[in-house]
Specification:
The complex is a heterodimer of chains A (127) and B (286). Chain A is mainly α. Chain A is built from 7 helices and no strands. Chain A is globular and about 45 Å long. Chain B has one domain: LigB-like (Protocatechuate 4,5-dioxygenase, Chain B). Chain B has 10 helices and 10 strands. Chain B has an 8-stranded mixed sheet with strand order 6-3-7-2-8-1-10-9, sandwiched between helices. A two-stranded antiparallel ribbon of chain B has the order 4-5. In chain B, β9 and β10 form a beta hairpin. The chains are: A mainly alpha (127), B alpha/beta (286). Chains A and B meet through α1, α6 and α7 of A and α3 of B.
């Protein structure tokens, strides 16, 4: 699993209006082209060969599945920001301000009072 | 030597500008009170008559990412753009350009190195809302040169609360030694208890109102001993997954020293406790 690469996806897509629109409209296609041509970029000239998404990570990103992403330890700020960008306006129109953010919290209620999955990139293997 | 004119530690609610400039019929009920409190707080900086601002904040994955994330970083540029596309989009914060102060940046950087803080540095730094929100609330004309300092309160492993305090103490010594007759104010932003992207986000109060009350008491009385006895990375995690921004408020107390505030105020908003602290370490402003 690559928490780093999941975070890189969220980071690079959230900061680019065109990628963000494609992630909203057709997530499967955007995730595929991201893995092909955007994820591997170290900078405009260099390609990095060391990272990959697992099947589970790819599916979570395709499904906008922020619960699974939370449970994988994706960074909370990246995850919240990108899904607000995708859903907030539609939810606001239908159900009023903060309705998306509250649904997001509601879907994570089973973590209340527990230790959340860490956003740290390195963790000792669970014993 | 330079005068430390004021030290301000503030929460940085990114929706302040949007909430208080929307047409009145669309404003949240607390907007007028919020605006009054911010304007009163702003006056605590204005009356200190600063010439330069040392600004403390934390990049929220705007310029910096996990391929190269600085623990402590100082800006050394002649000027700074501010506000990223995704901040304009989400928070409605406008773009700014702030003048830098290369001479104080260089003096500060060398002084930090001399004191064992080997800072990363940037000569092309775009500032995010952790710095521009306090500009909007405390110096909306954005007319003073700034020296930006970024800390990592965001991606483990984080420096300890004690390290933030010690860094604040070092910054204070450097300001005191700066050979200039200018008046320097330090303005830093962070959080009390805060949850983002987790089950306790966007509730009626912040995720840990008990911590919030204690934190306000500790900061306003300058009680660093209580902070260092009670606040750890784990305790902050228990108070809310993004509570570690509190360490930037500890840093600001470090600049002020263990003294009571000259002014503090707070406002219980719908999902955070907003809080505003001002110290005049060299006596009340003229």
């Amino acid at each position: 699993m690559s928490k780093y690469y999941v975070n890189k996806f969220l980071f690079t897509v959230d900061r680019d209006p065109d990628l963000l629109r494609r992630y909203k409209d057709d997530p499967r296609s955007l995730v595929a082209s991201w893995e092909q041509s955007i994820g591997p970029k170290l900078n405009d000239a260099e390609i990095s060969t060391v990272n990959f998404l697992t099947d589970a990570e790819r599916e979570a990103l395709i499904k906008h599945d922020y619960v699974t992403l939370f449970e994988m330890g994706a960074h909370f700020f990246l995850s919240l920001t990108i899904f607000i960008a995708i859903y907030d306006e539609d939810y606001m129109t239908k159900n009023g301000p903060l309705s998306f953010q509250r649904e997001f919290a509601e879907k994570l209620q089973h973590w209340t009072g527990k230790d959340y999955p860490s956003v740290a990139l390195w963790q000792a293997a669970a014993r | 030597m330079a005068t430390l004119a004021a030290v301000l530690a503030t929460t940085h609610h990114p929706f302040y500008l949007k909430a208080t400039t929307a047409p009145p019929e669309q404003q949240m009920p607390q907007a007028p009170e919020w605006k009054r409190k911010i304007e009163a707080y702003r006056e605590t900086l204005t009356r200190a008559k600063p010439d330069i601002l040392v600004m403390v904040g934390a990049d929220h994955f705007h310029q910096f990412f996990l391929d190269n994330y600085p623990t402590f970083l100082i800006g050394k540029a002649p000027r700074y753009d501010a506000t990223f596309y995704n901040e304009e989009r989400e928070f409605g914060i406008p773009k700014y350009v702030l003048e830098g102060h290369e001479e104080l940046s260089n003096f500060m950087h060398q002084g930090l190195m001399d004191r064992g803080f080997d800072f990363a540095f940037s000569h092309e730094l775009k500032l995010d809302h952790s710095i521009i929100c306090p500009i909007i609330t405390t110096r909306p004309d954005a007319d003073l040169p700034v020296v930006p300092i970024y800390t990592n309160i965001f991606v483990p492993p984080l420096p300890s609360p004690k390290r933030f305090w010690d860094l604040g103490r070092a910054i204070r010594e450097i300001i005191d030694e700066y050979p200039s007759d200018q008046r320097i104010a330090a303005v830093g932003s962070g959080h009390l208890s805060l949850e983002l992207g987790g089950p306790r986000q966007f509730k009626e109060t912040g995720p840990d109102p008990v911590f919030d009350r204690k934190a306000i008491e500790w900061l306003s009385t300058g009680n660093i001993d209580a902070i260092l006895e009670n606040v750890t990375h784990d305790s902050m995690t228990k108070s809310g997954n993004a509570t570690h921004g509190f360490m930037d408020l500890i840093l600001m107390l470090g600049i002020a020293g263990p003294i009571p505030t000259a002014y503090h105020d707070n406002l219980d908003l719908f999902h955070t406790m907003e809080a505003y602290f001002t110290w005049y370490p060299e006596g009340a402003a003229a």
